[in-house]
Structures are given as C-alpha cells and as structure tokens.
Amino acid sequence: MQSACSVPTISDRAYQCLLKYALEPAAEAEFNAHSYGFRPGRSCHDVQQGIFNQLKANAKGIHKRILELDIEKCFDKIDHKFLMQSVQLPRAAKQGLFRAIKAGVRGEFPSSETGTPQGGVISPLLANIVLHGLENVEYELRYKVKNGGTYLDALKGFRYADDVVYILNPEDDENILRERIDQFLATRGLKVKEAKTKVIKSTDGFDYLGWNFCVKPNGKFISTPSQKSVKGIKTKVKEVMKDSRFTLEERIDKCGAVIRGWRNYHRFCDMSQHDLWSLNYWTWKFIRKQGRYDRYQTNRVLKKAFPSVKWAACRFVNVTGTKSPFDGDLAYWSKRENANYDGITAKVLKKQNHRCAHCGLMFYSGDIAELHHKDGNHANWKANNLEVLHRECHLHQTNHGRRCESEKRVNPDLVDVKLGA
User: Which residues form the Reverse transcriptase domain (predicted)?
Assistant: First the structure.
C-alpha cells in the first residue's frame, strides 16, 4: 500500500521553503556525520564510500554482519508533539510550521494528526530532525580496551533519510541493538517494519541505494549496480526508443541522456561487468529496423545513444566528519564543489586556487564556472589564454561572445558582439 503524497499550493510551498531556510543551518550544526539523505553537500556516494571503508579487506569486512533496517510509513507516522519539541524556530514560525503539517484538504481529507506531507518542501528536513541519532542510537557508548588503555568504539550506522544500515562486528549483539532502535523509534511514533528488517553476512551481499555491496570469499569488497537498477535502466531505454511521439534522432538524444545519468550515478562502482552490451545490441537492431541508417552509420549513432563515462571503483572522497556548507569554511566547500569539473576547466581552476579570475571570489555551491578565452578567439586553447570566471563575471567581459577567427573566415558576415564593460 502506497502512502498518500500531498501536493501543497504555491503559497504553502513558498512558506515552507522560508521555514526550511531558517531551520536548516541550525539543524545542520547538530546532525550526525553518518546522516546523508537530503542534506546539502552530501550524497549517496558518501554512503557508498563509507560502507567500503567499513567492509574493505583492511577493515576485516569478511567477518562483519549487516543489519538492514526499514521504518514502517516513516513520513506518515511521525509524532507531531515530538517534532515540534525538536525544531528550533521562533514562536511565530513554529506556529506556522504546526499549521503546515496539520493541514488537510477541505472536503476531501481531514487534518492530519501524525506525519509530514511527503510532497512538502520541508518534509525531508523534518524527517532528518526526528530521526537524528538513529545512526548510533546511544549504542556507541562501548568502551573497549586496547594496548592497556580504553577508547570509545562507535557503532557504524549509515542513514539516508529513513533507510538505515548498521555494520556489526562479530562481538556486537544485534538483539540489544534492536531493543535500542525500538525504544528510539517508539518515542517518535514510529516502528520497524519486520518484513524488511534482517541481519545478513557481508559475504551474502545486500542492496542499498541502488547498489549491491558484497565481500567476496577472498575478503575483497565489491560494489556493483543492483539487479533492480540494471533492470530499470533496460526498461527505461526501451520505453524511450519505442516512444513514437518523438523522431528517431530525438529518441537517440534522450537515450543518451538516460544512459549518461545512469553511468554517472554508478561511476564509483565496479562497472567491468555492466557495460550494457545486450541493451546496446537491442538498440542497434531497433535503429537498423527503422531503415534510416546503414550499419556503419548505426554504429556511429549508437555512440551517441550510449555515451561512455569513466568509472573508478570506490574512489569517491567523503565529506570530512560533520562538516556542513553552513560552517563558514568556504575554502573547503569551494574545492569540493569544483571537483565536479574535469578536463581543462579543472586544471585552470586549480591554477587559480579555485577563485574567479575577475572578481577574486571563490566558487561556492550553486555558482557556475565558465571557461573564458581572454582574446575572444575560441580557437586559441593555449593555457595563457584561458581563465575560469563566474557566469555573471563572464557575461560582463568586453570580448565575451566574440566569434573566433576561423568562424569569420567561414562566414565573413559574422560581426563581433561586444558587451559593455
């Protein structure tokens, strides 16, 4: 049974967004380092790399177990009283938030007594606030003796929204952990879904966030796309290619976007056995059947439909500890955001110390970095002719938009377009 997804009005969404902007910085200052879902500066790949660090050969992952936890109707059953006690907002804002989570639809649905609207802008943040601490559930207070001294050994749990996995050492008691989890959730009006909660060996493998994690008998850790994810991409590509509302060329472009997105998501997996050869062959036959291209042209077109993406298994760089974009460390977050760029743009960014060559400010989350040719000649790719600017700074360059000399020779009617300084 699927939970209802309420869609707020435009004004309600705007108000929820304002509350989110007010509440998020304070909440981020308290969130656990192993909470990753719907948080700025964090992603699924942080979870993937964290699990690798716990199950790799050096960490003796072959002897560990995994507790997969599923919360029953998390967004629908959150206790409003506990939620309102947990948020840090002024009184007027709290009253507005309370009305937002209580609101129903006149004549159709009564006002809700529990839960948060899944279609709301602020709902993921509220769920994170309520579930804060579930990654450790006070079970981290385990003092162990090593080399004659005691140290605090923290339980390794990874939470992405309401999906949680715990990495258990051989000496950990899953029954005690389950008791703590049940107590933790009961105070919030939630409970565990027994049908989907289980303890498995690391060598048996488990699916999480679209990936399959497994430790081989030789102790080597491997992360691959899950069978469900592979099946989903095959279904999606076939739907796109069979969609007769678009031309064949448009379908090929759409297929390329889908494949590129899928491969980018899995670029930190071992993709050696997931080159989608069978899907590639099916698409090749489908294009040939249309009678538009011969086999040589089809081979060239197929490269557009199945763009290659470089992958490097378990090479993602995790967020450091509890760092947040709201902590004021602009240098750290600027370098981390700029890591999304590659090729010559990345090289120039590093040369400029991740600062805009025009205004001198660092590139921050949400800023768009653009490559600028100083002399306006887009055919001149010499290193001393390139610099990276903010998009806004780029638009105000005097030679921005000038056509390269090679273009002018092809079409003499082209004229330079100069923007005011």
Answer: 1-213
